[in-house]
Each structure stands twice: as structure tokens, then as C-alpha cells.
Amino acid sequence: MAAGDSLEQKFTFNLIYCKTFSFLQDRNTTELLMKWSMLGRITAQAFTFDQPFHPYKSHEFVSDFFKDPCVLSNLKVVGAAGLWKNLGRKVTNVTVETVPCTKISVDMFDPLYSCGIVRPTGHITQCFHQYYADFDELRKMLMIEDSENYEIISREDRQEFLFRLFKHLCLGGELCQYEDIVTHYIETTRLIYKDILSVQKDPETKEIKIVSTVLKVTAYDDSGLCYPSETEDDQTFAYLIVDPFKRNVNVLYHSYGIGVVTDTDRDMSHTELVQ
């Protein structure tokens, strides 16, 4: 090895073929994802890795992830025709954002009730918007920074993975049919959150703590952005959720667009994913 070459080993990854995620198997949840125009464009996968993970070296971890042959031949993306395919691109650069992930309950959404965005019955308050038909106070709080209720969720909490996941579900895909009752959003957020994160109980305090590190990632090839899509959108995202103890990494992926709209489409999309 030439002088100056790194002596550190690169991460090697392997797909966990048998791994299933509850939110993609539960019929009630998939029906909601279909209603929100996300089904058929959202998925989760799991990989193992072989070296100790340290958060301060997240960029190296992600760079190795996108250069690994197993990842390139198995990582699912939605192509231009709306069909699933493997990434299979030579990645030349990545961006990595460490996403705060400390919440162990959905209490952060309690202010939605106290400020009138959600009525005591759970119904979301409707409102007028000059650009959006059938607008409501929930989406107004999520999307419009100068709205009167924007800061009922602190700017710090808005960075949390739990809030980001909730926002992704509330805004949905291109043909999203929005909910009248907030419970569907909160419970689906809770299910996915629990499904892809790892927790441990502190032996002394008995408190439950999240041990996963959440990384929001993008990847580029010689032509530009290639993952999670060639086109940027706030609703197109990929998160790597790293468990440093089990040495597993879960990938939560969604590409904004028109999701499946029938049960037949759902079955066909599932068939594409498992091939």
C-alpha cells in the first residue's frame, strides 16, 4: 500500500432478504398509503454491515454504502416510468444529514389539539387557501412558515425524525386524498417509526432510549442527482437508519409521484419489489 493510503477498512454490506416491515404488510396501513398516493412508491429494506459504526464518520459510511456492489444491485428506486428497479449507478458523491431522533412518544403532536388545528373529536379544522383546494389548518401549519400556528411545534422539534415522518405522511403523494381525522396520520407515523428504529432500556434508569442514528441521504453520479430520484422534491426522500449494535441499516425510501390506486396495482407493485 502506498504511503498516505487509508488503513481503515471500508464497510461491506449485505441485503437481509427475509426482512419484512410491519407497515408494508398491514392491510389497514397499506390502504392508507394507497389513499395518500404513496403506496407503490414507498418501501423499506435492510442491510447488514461488517465494521463498527461511529456517527462522526457517517459520511464515510454512506459513501461506502453507495459504492457497495450488493447495495447497487439490490437497492430499490422508482424509475422514470414509475416502475421499481435497482439503483445500479456508479455513485461519485453523496450528501449526508444527521437527523435528530430522540422522541419515544407522539406527545409532540398534543399542541395540535390545544391550538385548534384539531378539534377534540380528532377532526382537522378546514380553512381557505387561495392556491390549494380543500385546504386545512394542519397542512397550513406544516407548510406555511408565517402562519399563525407554525411555531406550536418548535423549530427544534421540527428537525426531529418523528416530525419529518409525520409531515411526509400528511402531505403524501401527487394524488393524495387528505384525511379528515388526524389519528390516521399519527398512528401510521407511530407504526413506521417503531418499525424501523431500534431502542434499548437503560439498565440503571430503566428509561427507553433510541440507539439508531438516522441519516438523510442523497447520491450523485456523473450526470447529477441519481438517488433517491433524479428530480428533487421535498416528498422524495431516503433515510438510512443505522443500528450500531446489530450492525443493521434500514432504508426508508419514497419517490413523489402517483402511487398505486387499486388492489391489483398494489399486488403488481409488491411483485416488482420482491423480484
Description of the molecule:
- The protein is of the alpha+beta class and 275 residues long.
- The chain contains ten helices and eleven strands.
- Strands 1, 2, 5, 8, 9, 10 and 11 form a seven-stranded antiparallel sheet that branches.
- The longest helix has 14 residues, at 183-196.
- It starts with 12 loop residues before the first strand and ends with a helix.
Rg calc: 20 Å
- How far from one another are the termini? 40 Å
Q: How are helices and strands ordered from N to C?
A: EHHEHHEEEHHHHHEEEEEEH
Question: Mean pLDDT, nearest integer?
Answer: 92
Q: Percentage of helical residues?
A: 25-40%
Strand content: 15-25%
**Structural class assignment:** alpha+beta
Number of helices: 10
Low-confidence stretches: 1-6
Biggest sheet descriptor: 7 strands, antiparallel
Q: Which geometry do the CA atoms define?
A: globular
How many strand elements? 11
Layout of strands and helices, then pairs:
Blueprint: E1 13-15, H1 22-25, H2 27-35, E2 42-49, H3 58-67, H4 69-74, E3 76-78, E4 84-86, E5 93-99, H5 111-114, H6 137-143, H7 155-158, H8 161-171, H9 183-196, E6 199-201, E7 208-210, E8 213-221, E9 224-227, E10 237-243, E11 248-254, H10 263-274
Antiparallel strand pairs: 1-2, 2-11, 3-4, 5-8, 6-7, 8-9, 8-10, 10-11
